[in-house]
Amino acid sequence: MKKRLAKKIEKMRRKKVHEALEIVLEINTTQARAQSKTGCKPTAFFERTTA
Fold first, then answer.
1. Which structural domain, as residue segments, surrounds residue 14?
2. Can you list the alpha helix ranges (DSSP code H) found in the chain?
C-alpha cells in the first residue's frame, strides 16, 4: 500500500512540474522578451528545489 501511495504522490508531483515547465515554455516562445537582465533571451525561468 505504501508503494502505491508513493507512486501516486510522485506522479502528481511530476504533473505539477510539467505544468510549470509548460507555462515557462509558453511565455518564452510567445511573449516579447524585454527583461532588462536577459535582453533578448527568455524572460521566464524554472528552478526545482528539493525540500
1. 1-32
2. 2-30
